[in-house]
Amino acid sequence: MYKLVLVRHGESQWNLENRFTGWHDVDLTESGVAQAKNAGRLLKEAGFEFDQAYSSVLVRAIRTLNIITEEMGQMWLPVERHWRLNERHYGALTGLDKAETAAKHGDEQVKVWRRSFDIPPPAVDESSEHFPGHDRRYKGIDPRALPKAESLALTIDRVLPYWHDVISPAIQANKRVIIAAHGNSLRALVKYLDNMSNEEILELNIPTGVPLVYELDKDLKPISKEYLGDAAQIKAMMDAVAKQGQAKK
Ligand SMILES: O=C(O)[C@@H](CO)OP(=O)(O)O
């Protein structure tokens, strides 16, 4: 049996401001830092030791992982950062206020943009500041692979090659792995691991800064899955994520 830990970054500045974030690079808030410390403390108390860590190339995930490994006394861990673990690209919604967008287009439309399986938000064009082709960290990647807007389905298409080529072989080579990533890049992975239907994934919201521990069999099929921490608090955090896309009453 293998163990795998997934963690969504702690609260970011744009989570706090309730703005669509995607590939925009924002840092953690103070409470995001506290959430990451708490995640590290919980993992340490539960006796976790890792051999390999992975994160996206976005600061909020990188910093969350740093804080967790520092808290655990495992800062020396090898880390591989990869753009394929980035958040889903929010296209032309990037930067907009989620509640204001819902007031303008309706809660249902925003739920479609946030959570439908295969309907992407409106795309940016290559002149947009939110097109990743302008960012040095994505140099060397085939521009056709760089997103202008992604649905969850498209996010799955770019996350899974990294899972199959890099992460799952590491796990099967007995490396104990932690992955720090994002609400939707982790939903992509969870959908795949748990073999969830397109309808089931619609209602799945992942809280910030809470370790999600999987036990996997030899073929990496889940045996069990649980969040570390206070169940009532975690449920409240998941409900709050779901509500972020509703217009203010
Ligand atoms: O804005 C985003 O990039 C994501 C995660 O923070 O938000 P949502 O939960 O609306 O998909």
UniProtKB/TrEMBL annotation:
Pathway field: Carbohydrate degradation; glycolysis; pyruvate from D-glyceraldehyde 3-phosphate: step 3/5
Amino acids binding substrate: 8-15, 21-22, 60, 87-90, 98, 114-115, 183-184
Entry keyword set: Gluconeogenesis, Glycolysis, Isomerase
Isomerase in keyword set: yes
EC number: 5.4.2.11
Pfam families, per database record: His_Phos_1 (PF00300)
Gene Ontology MF: a single term: phosphoglycerate mutase activity
The reaction(s) this protein catalyses: (2R)-2-phosphoglycerate = (2R)-3-phosphoglycerate
Active site location: 9, 87
Highest taxon in the source lineage: Bacteria
Keyword Isomerase: yes
UniProt-annotated site: Transition state stabilizer, residues: 182
Quaternary assembly: Homodimer.
HAMAP family tied to this protein: PGAM_GpmA
Family per similarity comment: Belongs to the phosphoglycerate mutase family. BPG-dependent PGAM subfamily.
Role: Catalyzes the interconversion of 2-phosphoglycerate and 3-phosphoglycerate.
Protein name: 2,3-bisphosphoglycerate-dependent phosphoglycerate mutase
Species in which this protein is naturally found: Pseudobowmanella zhangzhouensis
